[in-house]
Every structure is written in structure tokens, then in C-alpha cells.
Amino acid sequence: MTETDAHKTPAADETPLLVTKDGPAVILTLNRPDRRNAINRAMRKALKKELWRADGDDEVRVVVITGAGTSFSSGVDLPEALSGLPPRTEGVTPTQVLRGISKPVIAAVNGPCYTGGYELAVNCSFIIASDRAEFADTHAQIGLLNGWGGSAMLPRMIGLPAAIQFILSGEPIDGHTAARIGLANEVVEHEKLLERTLEIAHKIAGGHPGAVQRMLRLLKEGAGTSLAHALALEAEAGATYRPDAADIGARFSKRRSEKS
Prior knowledge:
37% of the residues are buried. By secondary structure, the chain is of the alpha/beta class. It folds into two domains: 2-205, Alpha-Beta Complex (2-enoyl-CoA Hydratase, Chain A, domain 1), CATH 3.90.226; 209-259. The protein has helices spanning 41-55, 78-83, 94-100, 116-122, 139-142, 150-158, 160-169, 175-181, 193-205, 209-222, 227-240, 245-259, and strands spanning 2-3, 17-22, 25-30, 62-67, 105-109, 112-114, 126-130, 134-136, 173-174, 186-188. Helix 4 packs across helix 6 (150-158). The longest helix has 15 residues, at 41-55.
């Protein structure tokens, strides 16, 4: 794993987002550990920039988002947000960018993941949680509303009754509970979180890039729609996607030889 040349300065105040690469995976690390990785303006700007950069880079197949130190993120930097221009004045949000890019994004949740941090995580393609992860949404408890898609995404992940309890109560849940209810795909030992996340990322990256991106688009566009509409989307994709027979044969032979 090598740090990109653009981010060689380690100071968190100057570098709110660390960018590293592991082969075809780019790792974005929220880097304000002394503030539990509270998402300030500089971090929001950097997140959007690096997500757009990854989406346009053919060498990047998967993005991983995690947190420095003991937290994933405590959410938006509220003192900053209350003392200046509100985040809504900044144009598109990081979560709108997450939902719009063509590459899979995995949230590797390494610790507390609260409020805006939870909204960031649920807008990723899926979540892998550490056994030290903790999830909560405190918006309603302090008089705020979800603004980054949390109220839309969560019911689609865990069902409406569980989402209502989670969002309105503000009660935290641990990683094992998150995996049980479908908020996280897996919960792993804390020390193995990044190792397991990158293992999954490399499995995804090993697939055909065009097929992976088209399938991701199909899954996202079909989620929450009727079965008939989702099937129509699949049929339309099948009619317009042009597979390479030689490439398919080579990939099939490679997979078969690896299993034998």
C-alpha cells in the first residue's frame, strides 16, 4: 500500500482526508482523529474531489472509506456548521456524489459512526464493520433532520420499523446488531477490518470492469422499484451491453484453473 504523492503531509488540520492506494483500490481515510473525524468543510470538499477523481480513473476499480484513530466519524462538525454558512450552501453533498459515481464504495467502519457519519456510511455500496463499530443517528434527538439521504436509504436496508426505531430513538447499536439487521454486511475483528475489506475490494476489482459497473448501476436503479420495472431495466441492459466473447472465455478459463 502506498500513499499518493498528493498527500504526503500527515498533519490532520492540513489533510482532513488521507488518500492511499492498494492496487486497484483507493482508500479514503477521514483524518481528524482528535475530533472523532467530524466532517468539516475541508473534509467535505476533499471527499467530493477524491470520489470524482476515483470515478474518472480507469485504474481505480473500488473505493474504501474508513476513519483514522478510534472513530469512523462523529458526523458533521456541528460547531463549524452553526457558526458559518450551512453545508447546504456548498453545492452537491458528499453523499450525492457517493450515490452518483459508477465505482463500488465500501465503508470500513472502524469505530463510532454517528449521525452524519452514519449517513455517509449508508450511502456507500455496503458496510463492513469492526467489532468496535457503533452506529447511531442523533439528528432527531438534537432537533435536526437527515439531510444526506439517511431517512431514504435506511428503510431500504433494514426495513421501516427498524429504521423508525433507530432514527427516532438515537440509541446506538453495535456492529453485531448492525450485521444482524442488515445495516452491515459483515462484522469482523477490529484488527482485521481493513484486511477483510481490501480482500473483498480485490475480489470485486478482479471482475470485468464494464460488467461490474453495469451490474452496480442495475442494482442501484432497480432497488426500491417494482419487480416488473427492475426486470425491465435488466432486459434493457442485456439488449445494450456488448460482451467480449474472447475476454469472457479467458476469464472463465482462469477462474476454472484457479479452482482446480
